[in-house]
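Researcher: Here's my situation. A collaborator sent me these components and asked whether they could plausibly form a single complex. I don't have experimental data yet, so a predicted model of the whole assembly would be a useful starting point for our discussion.
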Amino acid sequence: MARYGMALDYKSCINCRACESACKAENGVLPGRDNYRIWVGQKEAEGEFPNISIASMTYHPSQCQHCDNAPCQQVCPTNATYYDDNGVVRVDIEKCILCTYCINACPYDARYVDDRTVTVDKCNFCSDTRLANGETTTACQATCPTKVRTFGDLDDPNSDISQLIAKREYKQVKEHLGTKPKLFYLL
Amino acid sequence: MNNFSIKNLFEFNKTPLNLLVAVLGIVLLGAFLAGAAYYILHGHHAFNVTRQHPWGLLIAMYVFFVVSSTGLCIISSIGHVFGVEEFQQIGKRAIAGAIITLLSGFAVIALEVGHPVTMIIYNVLTPGFTSAIWWMGTLYGIYLVFITIEFFFLTIKVDHKWSKIFGIGGLLSGLAAHSNLGAVFGFLISRPTANGVFYPVYFILSAMITGCYLLYIIYGFKYRNDYPEQLKAMFLKLNKILGMLLGILIFFEAWKIITALYGTMPERAETILHVISSPTFIFGEVLLGMLIPFAIILFTNGQAIKPMVYASLTGMIGIFFMRYDLVHDTLIYPMTMLKRSEYQLPPTFLEYFPSATEFAIGFGGIGITIFLFYVAEKVFNLDPDREH
Ligand code: SF4
Ligand code: SF4
């Protein structure tokens, strides 16, 4: 079984947000202010005029980090949130009671209430819509024009993602919380 | 048990205060039903909670009710568990109150949780043992069973041995349940202001204070400030206990604030600074909830009973704000995740104001409490038995 993660060459992101659209279309995410599985954040430029650092102005595509030690999973009273065989953190809509504890507990604001199922929804690396059909990429990766995203198996030493994070430096978000996120921001 | 008929359910002394409470109870009960109907039709969209502020007034009111229940149980156990004589007379009424406030809390939370039936099923089938909500819910269920049986042995089939055994069970499960409710917040590593040991301990402390306030209100209403001697003796002790508890609470709060501000740790210090400068904290929590009752106890040397009844009303308003702020303050710092320019303005503290439905359901729960209390007074004899 795999252990899926994603590496993001975030400095190549041009903020076109094709990934957001692709995700919404692929996974049927409903319109609405709070309804999004993935997003592109923008880091504002640092420094004071005239010494404004252009390099500091970057875009940060993000989504659920599929934490190996996920707070959302720990707090779920009915085990509706679970790790699947591929290490993907998922929500079982049969068991979710919509207590929204997991939304409070996720340090990455990755969860929201889905009006289709009236349960909590989040990125699941297109597990139902693509991986289940034998595809090997996520919708966001497939659509990205600048090849920011590399999705793959962290346990397979020959996978693209394993090669990338072995060779390049990366940072992670809020890893001091002990969540062991599986999103890698390549430096 | 009393002789009970539908007819005498509608008979009461039509004093202005009684009528006021009756009208209030009916209005609140009506509000609850209307809010519940609106929620059933419109689902979660009837509430003003969002992705960034997923919990709101209903969670606060649930905590408010179960705090009341635990508080009444703890204070009444001073009498029938620990054997302090003056407190034995309040046992039946306090345990009735504990059951009633817990049921009111359950009524409110049933409309907050999206799928309460699924909850009952999967709490049993696939229990999440690492979840504080699972422990809290399960322990409160056990607690309800204990205190209900305790009440049975106090009023229906009077048996002091069994009432004491179930009283101890109720006390222990109530303490465990309630501190787990604190842990629901304390375990949140994503929220630096809530994370830590404070809430589980503070919940028990504030429950005891709530229990004291409620006893003043319940007995103040019943006796209209004309108390029998034995009740006076109880109140004088309660004054001292409450004074001490409030002193400890003020001390706890002060240190919580100082440690949160010290060193200006990101997220935590800013949030607490924002919190302590908000009117709900200054006027609600501090003035109404703590200082007014504390000052009265202090300046009357714990001898005042009548003023404490009124101070308990402000105290309960303060307790409400403590519960409201507990939820709001935990969530107030935006989880920006570098979304600054895309989804929200540069980080400001989150805004939340409950919707009409949330008000109707949350405060409507108080109508359930008033109604059930009224019925309980009619059906059961909540005054001490002769042999006491
Ligand atoms: S990012 Fe949030 S939702 Fe995703 S696994 Fe981690 S805690 Fe859970
Ligand atoms: S909202 Fe659903 S998935 Fe989230 S903690 Fe509650 S039951 Fe689990």
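Model: Some features of this prediction you could bring to your collaborator: Confidence is low (pLDDT under 50) at residues 341-345 of chain B. Residues 32-344+354-379 of chain B form a domain with the Formate dehydrogenase/DMSO reductase fold fold (CATH 1.20.1630.10).
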